[in-house]
Amino acid sequence: MAKYAYSFGGGTAEGRTGMKELLGGKGANLAEMAHIGLPVPPGFTITTEVCIHFMRAGGKYPADLTRQVRRALARVETLMGRKFGDPREPLLFSVRSGARKSMPGMMETVLNIGLTSKTIDGLAASMGNNARLAWDAYRRLITMYSDVVMEKAAGLEPPEGKGIRSRLEHAMDALKKKRRVKLDTQLTADDLKTLCMTYRKLVKKVLRKPFPDDPMEQLWGGIGAVFQSWNGKRAVTYRNIEGIPHDWGTAVNVQAMVFGNSGNDSATGVAFTRDPATGEHQYFYGEYLLNAQGEDVVAGIRTPQEISKQGSRDWARNQNIAEKTRRELYPSLEETMPRVFRQLDGIRRKLERHYRDMQDIEFTIERGTLYMLQTRTGKRTAAAHVKIAVDMAEEGLIDEREAVLRVPPGALDQLLHPVFDAASEKKAELLTRGLPASPGAATGQVVFNADAAEAWASEGRTVILARIETSPEDIGGMNAARGILTARGGMTSHAAVVARGMGKCCVAGAGEVVIDYASHSMTVGGRKLKRGDWISLNGSTGALYAGRIATHDPQLTGPFGTIMDLADKYRRLGVRTNADTPHDAEVAVRFGAEGIGLTRTEHMFFEGDRIISFRRLILVAETVKTLRDELKAAGDNPEAAKKVRKKLAAPLKQYNRALAELLPLQQKDFEGIFRALKGRPCTIRLLDPPLHEFLPHDDAGQKEMSRQMDVPVKEIKALVEKLHEFNPMLGHRGCRLGITYPEVTAMQARAIIQAALKVKGARPEIMVPLIGHVRELSLQKDVILETIEDIRKKRRLKKLPFKVLIGTMIEIPRAAVTADEVAEVAEFFSFGTNDLTQMGCGFSRDDAGKFLGDYVRLGIYEKDPFQVLDRGGVGKLVDMATRLGRRTRPTLKVGICGEHGGEPASVEFCHMVGLDYVSCSPYRVPIARLAAAQAAIRDKAAKKPARRRPKRRK
Ligand code: PEP
Ligand code: MG
Question: Which is more confidently placed, 946 or 174?
Fold first, then answer.
């Protein structure tokens, strides 16, 4: 019989931490904590397999589940010395989700299960005659259960504000008003009892069903609803964003309730073994609330207090609160319950030693007794990722390789993006300060709801989402926003946790900010800001500013430098950059680029007046070519030749003029890039894009060209029409341009070589794009070599002072499958995986966006093949072409310069098939360095080293 329920508690457990697939992260870690002797309230975990069965079987459970749950439940009863449903000393349960990977706040929880009209008094009596606690627990049970089980899980979708939870909250607000109190905690036991009666009536009226009064019915209702919440809207959205498979399912944890709200010797809290924002660990980072339940901390309704005294003092300083006030109103746990604090601090150390990673823990103190409710590997910012990995390696908790593996390459992105320019930030108008919940800087237009954030961002605007507090419903908008601001909530509020996970800048709990959703505006200290106004957030200090603030590049030293040095120590792949300007090249070199793998020369043609010269060139190039062909055809007929020559004169003049204008400009560009590279190699690609991208399509543009070329507009229009192509991406582009207009290739080659002659140490590599046939490459190589020879002769040089490599991009499948022939001519290959994906998969780069989303959703492709290299198809072409090419020319240098060159999974693939280097945009260089190191370390660990380039053949 399969095992569906795994018990834990009382110093032992049936599960272990390695069983996350079956027990979910929460369940596996509860089991582990019980194993290592931590005080965990007993309970049991129902496996993810049951969830999968439940989903497939339309809400039915496997046959033996009921029996197994009953047995596990009896074990908890024994350990707790209380019975479920017992009127004198009732045992209550919490029912919580727990997927393999944490999905904070995305699924449902029901607390206080087992409270019925028969058990309420017993609970009160057994908790030291605490009637208030019992009725408060019952109120919470009715709220959660009616919302989660009776409404959501039943498929009811009332309009916003009309759901049962809102109705119950209104009833509570009405009672508070009547009693003239502000806080829930000010309601008496009798008030809460009255409220519970109102709640029950409301549930019956609204949901047309009585609130269940049977403990077992409540338990199974809770379990089913948690399973169902796996497929709830926000859970599905979250999984889509995070790339979590939909068929994993969640486990359900049923655990004995302990009460953090049973008096002033009780509390509940969330803590981290190191600071999740910075990675620091001089003191214990965490927050707690006296006399409260866990949901109160996470919901951000009350402002939590710090756990450690030092943390509390730092917090007070940040909030401008005097030490005396802090001590009186917001003391730390270290001060209020020193004994429990010491116990918790001991557990923190034990957990870190055990898990060898930063842990995010939840605890409850019930009448002076500490209970651990959860531990999991804590989500953290990129800065914390790096610092924790480096520190733990220095402390000997992990080794260097493990430190490199610990940092997700993609997270580095957060560290590489600009931070506020200090001088501009100083001058900016500071509106207020909140908590520095997730570091970084963000400037954007403020919006006040998640839908607006998504809509505005999709129009290309940069937005900051401001909310009173966020909830899981806001997930899409938070993802779309550049930064998040909340008026309420602490460092562990939903906004703070989710923002850190997403790597978004966040300022939380800015109490002076008053947001009015109805008028789409907020006020801060008398200053009103409307939707669309620019604001700036500093998530590292908690500052909120009006207006935009200038930014600059980040610091690349400290722990970041250490992790990069370690990455360089272990990686085998070279890392170059794609850069078209000296500035980009400089940035990339600072990020560790070892050269340029792709300079797209055409990008330079758009700048300033160059576009005019370039348009002049392409508008006459075709005419010049046709007339030259005619001239050849005229052969020995002098009369005909004379006529053609006459016709050719004017366009040829324009053509030569354009080439002469472009040559020095291009040369200057290349000189700048060579200089920025300081002796590093530089692959420059000859002209590649479809010509239509440069043509003047609008009236103004055509008129301007008519003026510049002294040709009627009509003629310009006709030329533009003549050059029109139906499928330009497969049309006259790439080396085809150089084949038909060899003068352009010659001009570019001349500009490259002349520039290299001017800059000491330049190492030019000339790359021919988009070849499908080796003969295309030979023809272009001839033009390049002739140009080099011409320069050499004119300059009376014996030979050039540098070696010029001539190679090609491999981006047409035909080139890949004939790579052995291509390598006869090419001295290097660079895979243009953007085009290779386009032509390999047959997906238009410009149009595939329309349906690729569906393709990924349906699992046809696991990931968008333009983002993550399609190993099974395009990857095979890369692998095969590399082998074929090196068979012909063992010294062949092979790299990749498509977008995939900076994407971690694709970099790993490049390592595996033995490429020499990857090339990516400047900001992705550190990501590629780290991903390359991780690939090398994993490879060694798997004991199947990646293919290396073959030894040079004699
Ligand atoms: C490619 O096709 O992968 C490539 C790098 O070239 P481009 O994106 O300029 O076509
Ligand atoms: Mg290309």
Answer: 174
